[in-house]
Amino acid sequence: MGYVHDSLLKDEKVIFTTKNHPIIFLWPVIILVVGLLTAMGGGKTGMSTGGPFLLIGAIWFVWSFIAYSSNEFAVTNKRVIIKWGVLKKITLEMNKEKIESLLVHQSLLGGMLNYGDVTVSGTGATKQKFPVISNPMQLKKTVQEVS
Q1: pLDDT, tens digit, for every residue of 53-108?
Q2: Which of 35-44, 73-82, 114-123 is predicted least confidently?
Q3: pLDDT computed for residue 43 by the predictor
Q4: Helix 26-41 × helix 43-70 angle, to 10°
Q5: Is the same domain home to 60 and 96?
Q6: Domain count for the chain
Q7: Is 112 within a domain?
């Protein structure tokens, strides 16, 4: 993890890390498959109708891959460190004592596949939502357990 390890303080150790869940690739793959099936099955008209699906699916897949590769979530023995974003970078580095709550929202599918949205609330006005995080309950548990 590049940003997290570059941000560590003296005597600070990473205890838990996670990433976005691979489910972020579901819709781009579905659109790519629809585009391929449409392009292969309809001759000239199939390519003209399948082409936009292929283009949109490919762009969305590449964007999801970049996000998956660049987003970082970590709990250390001193704080929570999160780096989020591709074109616009959001960083959250909050001492554990300043965290008021971690809210985890999981849908039925999210609970079955172990992903969810995590909202970090700190003292003052700090409140940031991070969607589609792998293992969100373990993230919350680790923040609560580390002293």
Answers
A1: 999 999 999 999 999 999 999 999 999 999 988 788 888 888 888 888 899 999 99
A2: 35-44
A3: 61
A4: 160
A5: no
A6: 2
A7: yes
Quick one: pLDDT at residue 2?
A: 85
β-strand pairing of 72-76 with 14-18: antiparallel
Number of Cβ within 10 Å of residue 72's Cβ equals 20
Nearest to 58 by CA among 38, 37, 29, 34: 29
Does a structural domain hold residue 111?
yes
pTM summary value: 0.84
The answer to whether residue 5 is domain-embedded is no
Give the domain range for residue 55. 24-66
The answer as to whether 120 is a domain residue is yes
* Residues 61 and 96 both lie in one domain: no
